[in-house]
User: Fold this.
Amino acid sequence: MKVAIVILNYNGKTLLEQFLPGVLEHSQEATVYVADNASTDGSVAYVKEHFSKANLIINTQNGGYAKGYNDALKDLNEDVFVLLNSDVEVTKGWISPILEALQKTKNLVAVQPKILDYKNKDYFEYAGAAGGYVDALGYPYCRGRIFNTLEKDLGQYNDTQQIFWASGACLFVKKEAFQNAGGFDEDLFAHQEEIDLCWRMQQQGGGIQYIGSSTVYHLGGATLGVENPKKTFYNFRNSLLVMLKNNKRASVWPILCIRMLLDGVAAWQFLFSGKQSHFFAVFKAHLSFYSLAPRFLKKRMKQSKKMKYYQIKSIVWNYFIRKKTTFNILKKHI
Assistant:
């Protein structure tokens, strides 16, 4: 299998300077591409001057994560795409175990490695950790990370495991499966588009895995930090849109009502915590959801089949009320 590592960049010159050398050093079996989303910080010129082994793809606009990758990948011929954030440090041998699994397992279409925190390397990182799931209400969580509780890496997830979604911070995906699923949904722009993609690929019979024998370190928040209200906006809005689009069960309607009520609770918590901009971001997210709902209802009609997408009914209830704050404790009560 031929492998393409594609790093999407938007005004990330300093990140490329820090992390791209390691990617080139530890990825000899792959072709490395930097896909630039119309940066204005001299990123393109910098890559041309300092990294002759990195191939450049120039996008004409900043279409976010979704459109940026759709545009960048459309003309690549490799069998496997590795979508890698520009703020990820890779390690020696990180590709081999995942590539081996993709070659051996016919229906395996997407994989993520163990993702640890670059700033605190003994702990899992928020965006993906040891593989992702969603609960019945569509709230995402991970092995190694539930809400803001990050587990220390003690080898508890040094395994290979079927998961529901693989992190977009470091996503291995077969080209054929990516194209058959229609790529990323560009209406999502950024955040949770990998959950949507993984959901659709599973509807088409594909499998998603986490492989803990491969490790990378993610800096996180390089584009939108956790304190940025835009991140709150996209997370709240896109979670609702992904649920509306992909949950083919009739139960999606009461689920969306419950989610909106819980979103309202979260919004007031932001306000009482002095985070007024996040309070308004939640309500802007709902207004945007309403405006996009007709379009996503049409997409919903095109989805192939019903499928069970969750292991537990409510991660909110288990985490905040029952105090099941780590995945292995949670798993015992599923």
The mean pLDDT is 96. The chain has two domains: 3-218, 229-303. The first strand starts at residue 3 and ends at 9. The chain has eleven helices and 14 strands.
